[in-house]
Specification:
155 residues, mainly beta, first zn-finger domain of poly(adp-ribose) polymerase-1, 2 domains, 3-stranded antiparallel sheet, 8 strands, 11% helix, 29% strand, globular, DUF1203, DUF1203 domain-containing protein
């Protein structure tokens, strides 16, 4: 069992209020095209014509060689944070995703990185979590390497 973690509401509300991103820049304002604009808070696609934010995100608390930074989208308007064990909407629209396990030290656990077909995400997560040295998993776009969500072991 596992849970899919969206960005925290506190962080998202700060970005929506203009807080700087990972590079110290305010989030860019844009309008969703309705495709390819997944919000990392509600874990749904931002509807066509809706306002959205584009910003640099680093899903790590500290800087280190494995602390990847990349662009993400957020709903510009208030949305509800995804909570649950089901695979969210944003992880069902691409043919495949890059999945990587990380240790408690926030370093990639080598041998866990894999590009998996969308229909096999659950099986891949279970296979990676079978390794005791994996503390959590990141899901990224397989084509653009954009951070999608974090997956944690369920209690």
């Amino acid at each position: 069992m596992f849970t899919v973690q969206a960005l925290s509401t506190a962080d998202v509300r700060a970005y929506q209020a203009g807080a700087p991103d990972a590079y110290g820049n305010p989030p860019e304002q844009a309008v969703s095209t309705g495709t390819g604009n997944p919000c990392r808070h509600c874990l749904r696609h931002i509807p066509d014509g809706a306002p959205m934010l584009i910003l640099a995100h680093r899903p790590f608390d500290t800087l280190h060689p494995y602390a990847e930074t990349g662009p993400i989208f957020l709903c510009a308007d208030t949305c509800e944070r995804h909570a649950g064990r089901e695979i969210p909407e944003i992880l069902t629209s691409s043919p495949d995703y890059l999945i990587k396990g990380y240790g408690a030290d926030d370093r990639i656990v080598y041998g866990t990185g894999t590009v998996e077909p969308t229909q096999q995400i659950k099986e891949a997560v279970e296979r990676i979590f079978a390794r005791p040295d994996v503390a959590y998993i990141h899901v990224r776009s397989s084509r653009n390497n954009c951070y999608q969500a974090r997956i944690d072991r369920a209690d």
